[in-house]
Amino acid sequence: MNPLSGLYAITAGQLSTEGRLIQAVSEAIAGGARIIQYRDKSDDPSRRFHEAQQLLQLCHQHHTTLIINDDIDLAAEVGADGVHLGRDDGNIDSARQQLPKGIIGVSCYNDWQRAQAATQAGADYIAFGAFFPSTTKPDAPQAEPNLLQRVKQELNIAVVAIGGITAENGAPLIDAGADMLAVVQGVFGQPDIRQAARQYAQLFN
User: Fold this and answer.
1) For the segment 17-42, what is each residue's pLDDT rounded down to a tens digit?
2) Which of 41, 53, 133, 191 is deepest in the core (most CB within 10 A)?
3) In a domain, 197, yes or no
């Protein structure tokens, strides 16, 4: 099965402060998350290192992919499966030097030229969004489903849809070409994380 497909669950920062991170991710995987992205914007490198280590062990026990958000060094230190790069998070070449066999994903927002450049530079997947209003990034630019359709027609690369995606509005994005649906609050902000993840995972069946 393609590792770059299905529910792509992104951790929320408050999980660390509440001490719920590992349990919450375990529940998301049990519900069907195929990819976990560790996203923590705090400035506590020791905790982030230990959490990333724990998450990698958990993910590999369950044949799930672990991506580190924004931090190439951390991804390399813990041996994560890959890294996700935003606009200000380093470039694909430096990521590839540190993660020669790693998965490299790139945020492309609603920027087709950025998607083309990332593909040509050797990214493994690109991400577009926000497709819907997002509580995680309320100022994110609006992306349209035709971007997903263009990827399938013009670029040979896996593509993620992100931003305000729910189990109710996600299916048309898959139909348009999304290989993965990336979700933060829709999974980790719910009272029953496992059930929330399951509802997204079922969209891919």
Assistant:
1) 889 999 999 999 999 999 999 999 88
2) 53
3) yes
Main-chain dihedrals φ then ψ at residue 27, nearest 5 degrees: -70, -40
Return the exposure string of 113-143: e unless at least 16 CB atoms fall within 10 Å of the residue's CB, then b.
Answer: ebbbebbeeebbbbbbbbbbebebbeebeeb
Residue 7 is classified by DSSP as E
Residue bearing tokens 């609603």: 110
Domain that holds residue 34: 6-204
Residue type at 5?
A: S
Residue 42 covered by a domain: yes
Contact 41, 13 (CB under 8 A): yes
Is 1 contained in some domain? no
Other C-beta atoms lying within 10 Å of the C-beta of residue 17: 12
Q: What is the pLDDT of residues 82-93, one digit of tens each?
A: 999 998 878 999
